[in-house]
Design goal:
Blueprint lengths: L20 E12 L1 E6 L4 E5 L10 E10 L2 E9 L4 H4 L5
Parallel strand pairs: 3-5
Antiparallel strand pairs: 1-2, 1-4, 2-3, 4-5
């Protein structure tokens, strides 16, 4: 079962997980070829994307393999953005 583990990390913890699959909740700063994201601890992380991959949303959780202390190879992205409707908010 351990082959399916993917711990959540921030930028400071990436160096401890080189070569492993992790989850990185983050804010997308820039997407051009690859992506630059800001982790919850304020650190910036490079995300390697292929031409067919994209990050959908401003806030995402990236699942990927840690390539170096500040770079992740993208495998999957989950949007963490939500609308007021999704939150059940209403204008009264």
């Amino acid at each position: 079962m351990s082959e399916f583990q993917s711990p959540r990390v921030n930028a400071a913890r990436l160096p401890s997980f080189v070569g492993r699959t992790v989850r990185l909740p983050c804010k997308v700063i820039n997407v051009k070829g690859g992506a630059l994201v800001e982790a919850c601890d304020g650190g910036q992380v490079e995300v390697r994307l292929t031409d067919s991959q994209e990050l959908a949303g401003t806030y995402v959780e990236i699942i990927g393999q840690v390539v170096s202390e500040s770079c992740i190879k993208f495998m999957l992205g989950l949007s963490l953005d939500c609308s007021d409707k999704e939150l059940g908010r209403r204008d009264y």
